[in-house]
Amino acid sequence: QVQLVESGGGLVQPGGSLRLSCAASAFTFRLVAMSWYRQAPGKERELVAAISSTGGSTNYADSVKGRFTISRDNAKKMLYLQMNSLKPDDTAMYYCRWGTTNTWGQGTQVTVSS
Q1: Which residues contact 23 (CB under 8 A, 6 or more apart)?
Q2: Which of 109, 38, 51 is nearest to 79 (CA)?
Q3: How many whole angstroms separate alpha carbon 4 and alpha carbon 98?
Q4: How far from 57 is each of 1, 7, 75, CA to CA, in Å?
Q5: Is the CB of residue 70 less than 8 Å from the CB of residue 60?
Q6: Helix (H) or strand (E) holding 105
Q7: Which residues lie closer than 8 Å to 36 by C-beta, 6 or more apart?
Q8: How far from the centroid of its chain's Cα atoms is residue 49's Cα?
Q9: Is 5 helix (H, G, I), strand (E, B) or coil?
Q10: What is the pLDDT of residues 19-78, one digit of tens each?
């Protein structure tokens, strides 16, 4: 069974940066496309960014394009989300997702506030 553990969230001022990490337990990580989602209070979970198994292809929600960068290190079984120029609207719980399955991490909270 795959386990995903997110880390790196926290409280940051508007305009600041954070780097989220997601550690995967399965050796098949290198074969699976991965993604980051977020869910703000009272809102549905939404896709933030996705990356192909090799890292050669990425896509982003319009709201984060140019500010966020998704990446992965298959040797370390790690997924990352570099978040720059953070805005209060980015405040949410952030989750990594294994492929298109219903396997998620426990989430890491990002709060953007002055």
Answers
A1: 4, 5, 7, 77, 78
A2: 51
A3: 8
A4: 26, 23, 18
A5: yes
A6: none
A7: 20, 22, 47, 48, 49, 50, 70, 79, 81, 94, 95, 96, 97
A8: 7
A9: strand
A10: 999 999 998 999 999 999 999 999 999 999 999 999 999 999 999 999 999 999 999 999
